[in-house]
Here is the input.
Amino acid sequence: LKELFGRKISQEYRYILEKHSGAYIKDYYYIHAVERTPLTDSDGWESIMLFYPVHGENNIFEQYEMYSKQLPEEYIPIGEMDGGNLVCVRKNVGQIYAWIHDTEDKDIFLIGKNMRKVILSFQKVKKEYNDLSDGVVKVELDEVFYNLLKGDNNE
Here is the structure.
């Protein structure tokens, strides 16, 4: 891993890899990133779903190979966020970033100065979702699909 990262990895990240072979983050645990991303909610919370393992399926080396042509050269994918977005570490520096793949202008956002700060920033937050249309501007369905949803099979 040292060769991949270009530096010694932090004790906190090594612990996640050695003791948990990566880690899935429990529901309702969020962080406040240093920079807001397009996915940051109105209260400033950001979701990280998992950290990739060293061995097995979807390991850090497979992810690096898969995303090496899409990410800037100095970033290594180490985890996933909602929507297939990535948590990355910046080589030789150790800062943790979010890579949001479907943005037009900026796609890299600073999450934390280092892995320790990211891990210690996780907080359990019970979110209330009273209005499921929050943020939805418009939904368009074609007529066939709409009738299917209604249960009307008379196209």
